[in-house]
Amino acid sequence: MTNNIEIMRKYMGDLGIPERQLYRKDLYFDVQLIRRGKDNPDMPAANYTFKTYYIDSLELFDRYIEEIKQCCEMFKLRAYISVNAKSKIELSKKTLVKYAEMVALEESKKPWRFCDSVNGSMSGKEKRWVIDIDDCEDDKQYLYYVREAIGRCSTKYDNAIVVTLPTKSGFHVITHPFNTYEFNNHCKDMGIEIPEIKKNHITLLYENINLE
User: Fold this and answer.
1) What are phi and psi for residue 160, nearest 5 degrees?
2) Would you say 208 and 77 are in contact if contact means Cβ atoms under 8 Å apart?
3) How many helices (H) and strands (E) does the chain have?
4) What's the gap between Cα 191 and its chain centre?
5) What confidence tier does 157 reach under pLDDT thresholds 50, 70, 90?
6) What is the reported pLDDT for 29?
7) How confident is the model at residue 32 (pLDDT cuts 50, 70, 90)?
């Protein structure tokens, strides 16, 4: 089981999500319940987004969290959360543009999917990256070297790394943006594999999947 709920609740609060719903507050996070093919070998292999929750207050997050956990356990889903706080106004504007384009072209696409589609393409104003450390022989030793490399090539130095989260098969290191060219060179100098950097991504919030 992986449970990053309390860590990410604090993370959202630190990035400006209020305790109570404030309509003048523009920020939100999204939580996606995703069915992974490798977690469901008896079903089609393609990944599938089961449901998306839009969270603009910690109170709303607390209200949904038990439902999220139950869905994950019942349907073998993983709950992922965006690492960037997004803008509700920007989401509304971009979704309206999508609707207008569809109407102008007289296309019969599924309009109810536009909001989720636009949301998935958006990044926050204060960008955070995800460094994916997955299936390594010694995850903790590799994690140490990766964190060292990030610190050496970031203008934020000791504050470059925001939080490190466990995943089902490794770690996600959430960081402020840094110089990727210098980072790649530092990894080479230390003799370690260069990890995948995901610049507009999600991280694991919760899963309770046992395939044995």
Assistant:
1) -65, -40
2) no
3) 6, 10
4) 28
5) low
6) 96
7) very high
Integer Cα distance of 167 and 206 in angstroms? 9
* Dihedral (Cα; 5, 34, 143, 194), 10-degree rounding: -150
Q: Which of 54, 11, 13 is nearest to 32 (CA)?
A: 54
> What is the C-alpha to C-alpha distance for residues 31 and 174, in angstroms, rounded to an integer?
16
Q: Which residue has the tokens 């926050």?
A: 124
Residue 50 has which token pair? 């089961």
Task: Measure CA 50 to chain center.
Answer: 16
pLDDT per position as a tens digit, 101-155: 878 877 766 666 778 888 888 877 788 999 998 866 567 788 888 988 998 887 7
Query: Look-up: residue for tokens 């356990």?
Result: 73
Q: What secondary structure letter does DSSP report for 206? A: E
Q: What is the pLDDT of residues 180-211, one digit of tens each?
A: 999 999 999 988 889 989 988 899 999 998 86
Q: How far is 188 from 156, CA to CA, in rounded Å?
A: 22
Q: Report whether 142 contacts 196 (CB < 8 A).
A: no
Task: For residue 140, report the phi and psi dihedrals to the nearest 5 degrees.
Answer: -70, -40
Beta carbons within 8 Å of 165's beta carbon, 6+ residues apart: 4, 7, 8, 171, 172, 173, 174, 203, 204
Residues of the chain above pLDDT 70, percent: 92
**Phi-psi category of 16—alpha, beta or left, where left has phi over 0 and alpha has psi -120 to 50?**
left
Amino acid at the residue 162: V
